[in-house]
Design goal:
Length: 387
């Protein structure tokens, strides 16, 4: 079957990396994948290496429901939205057997596709915890009428979709945890160091992901004289404010670190395209997200490398307190520093957490069964569409 995948960027963020691992896991005797991605980036070289056709398609636009400022986002996105009918025509001309939308923010594209008269069988990934507001309810009405199957990355996204009005009795829905690479799962056992703990943050530098919180934590770690350092990897948002002004988050965070004289405790390195070696050599991953969602791409890849996770939230399918890491219902510098102190003093506990993380990752994030389940979903969608 010829499957066209629509990716909202070019391999920098978690959804795009997850798409790569998904298509890499497919049985190519059953699926002929083609990827259209909005920007050039790391995904281009990776897809070339495994022989998957792809192209940069700058007309791709993505909008998800937000808790506030939705009208501003739609207004700023208007120029891209105006290009969606032309993109929809290109998809119809490509004529795939099945369309796989990698992000729920692509619903406007699918609306344009349907208004143009196309009835291409469609599977869509749901990857974010968008608020169940009027915009999500409008999306849900379109999904109920025109999307054949939804794939949720955890149970949390499924619950939010149902709250917004998605009828899973009418639209097929499957929870599939994102896969990671077979190479990561097969990597050598992580070394446990005897020196200062190496803590890493991986993610876009924006307010929801909470990188600013790490500066306060670094100050607390210094106050308690706990031997460790936080290395932060990630750049600012790639879109521009009002299409003109770049985000300066990285520079602002570095300036704050300098002003508080914390350069020996925390460093913001900027974007890195290959985090595998960083995670393998780290002792801990920290995820200070304000949304309290401890199940992102950074968590999956950390666990695969045997790196325990400290995260905010209560969902414990991946980060299991005392087994693969620790969860904090609310952000508390002193409480988190206390856990880091314990792990610094007890490397046997760190070893146990690391081994448990690898065991869990091999069970939950193995790409081979994941690829087989994706093909099974495609088969069922196409079978249901046949006369």
């Amino acid at each position: 079957m010829r499957v066209l995948y629509i990716d909202i960027e070019g391999g920098f963020g978690g959804s795009s990396r997850s798409l790569y691992y998904m298509v890499a896991a497919l049985d190519r005797t059953q699926v002929e994948p083609t990827v259209w991605h909005r920007t050039s980036g790391p995904i281009s070289q990776r897809l070339d290496q495994i022989g998957i056709a792809h192209r940069v398609e700058p007309r791709i636009a993505s909008i998800i429901p937000r808790a506030r400022n939705n009208w501003k986002i739609w207004l700023a996105s208007a120029p891209r939205l105006l290009r969606l009918p032309a993109l929809a025509r290109s998809i119809r001309e490509f004529a795939p057997d099945l369309l796989h939308l990698n992000y729920e923010g692509l619903v406007p594209l699918h609306i344009a596709l349907c208004r143009g008269g196309a009835h291409i069988p469609t599977v869509m990934h749901v990857r974010t915890m968008s608020p169940a507001n009027a915009i999500y309810r409008a999306y849900a009405r379109h999904i109920n009428s025109h999307i054949d199957h939804l794939i949720f990355i955890t149970e949390n996204e499924r619950g939010r979709a149902e709250a917004a009005g998605v009828d899973l009795g009418r639209v097929g829905g499957t929870v599939l945890y994102n896969p990671t690479s077979a190479e990561s799962l097969a990597a050598d056992e992580k070394p446990i160091h005897t020196g200062p703990l190496r803590i890493v943050f991986l993610g876009t530098l924006d307010l929801p992901r909470g990188p600013d919180r790490l500066i306060g934590l670094a100050a607390e770690l210094r106050r308690q004289d706990i031997p460790c350092r936080i290395d932060c990897y990630g750049g600012a948002q790639r879109y521009r404010k009002l299409f003109l002004f770049p985000h300066r988050t990285l520079e602002e965070l570095r300036a704050r670190v300098h002003a508080e004289d914390l350069g020996d405790r925390i460093v913001f390195h900027g974007h890195v395209s290959g985090p595998e070696a960083i995670l393998h050599n780290a002792d801990l991953l920290i995820r200070p997200a304000r949304a309290g969602d401890p199940w992102g791409r950074d968590v999956i890849e950390a666990l695969a490398h045997g790196t325990p996770v400290l995260a905010t939230g209560t969902y414990d399918r991946f980060v299991r307190p005392g087994e693969t890491g620790f969860l904090f219902e609310t952000w508390d510098d002193a409480a988190i520093a206390s856990v880091i102190r314990t792990l610094s003093a007890n490397r046997a506990l760190l070893r146990r957490l690391s081994d448990n993380a690898r065991t869990l990752a091999r069970r939950l994030f193995d790409p081979a069964p994941y690829g087989a389940r994706i093909v099974d979903i495609y088969d069922r969608v196409l079978a249901a569409r046949r006369p």
